[in-house]
UniProtKB/TrEMBL annotation:
It comes from the Bacteria. Signal peptide: none annotated. This is Urease accessory protein UreG. Residues 4-172 form the CobW/HypB/UreG nucleotide-binding domain. PANTHER family: UREASE ACCESSORY PROTEIN G. Residues 214-233 have a biased composition (Basic and acidic residues). The keyword GTP-binding applies. Belongs to the SIMIBI class G3E GTPase family. UreG subfamily. Transmembrane segments: none annotated. The gene is ureG. The keyword Chaperone applies.
Amino acid sequence: MRLGVAGPVGTGKSTLIATLCRELAEQISMAVVTNDIYTDEDARLLRAAGVLPVERIHAVETGACPHTAIRDDVTPNLLAVEDMEADFAPLDLVVVESGGDNLTATFSPALADAQIFCLDVAGGGDVARKGGPGIERADLLVVNKTDLAPHVGVDAERMVADATESRGGLPVLALSQQDDVSIKALASWVLQVLEDHRAGIHVPRDPGPMAPHTHADGTTHTHEDADHGHEHG
């Protein structure tokens, strides 16, 4: 399964992924693909944290707005993911981290089977009410860094309630690195979605459009193919 993690700059995406690796790496086979515009900063952070063997963490330098490489032309990411899948087969989970972007940044279903969208309380308590495809339709919305709420004047419970209302019942998780219960809940959610994906019962929310792209074997899908959708192995 390919799990996309998106959200604005500084919301804690890399830390969230590091946490997932620590919680799950002994249970399932994982790899990570990170995105930065001009650097490999996020990949270096994860490698330095020792959450996975360094060769299982690959950096993509997008050279453009982060959403371009996860939504509009996913080929560089797709090639990186497929290379990891070939090198470390069989993999259970590849996590793809978007570069920090705005509230419209979502993954094309050509790249991600499921998506986590990450907000944090320091970004403002009203952000969850602003909506957008990631907030409203990602498979999971994480309200991160809830332990900081008292220090930034945000009511974390209200923010979670607003997010829940915006999502029409789709799951919302309040997460803090200081709260082991929330960390376990995040890991459990990922394992459940992985189980559903394996069973063929996971229905991707697909908040992003199907992007034209090229696979590692040279197969290319055009705008016309994207309009009709296709299956990925």
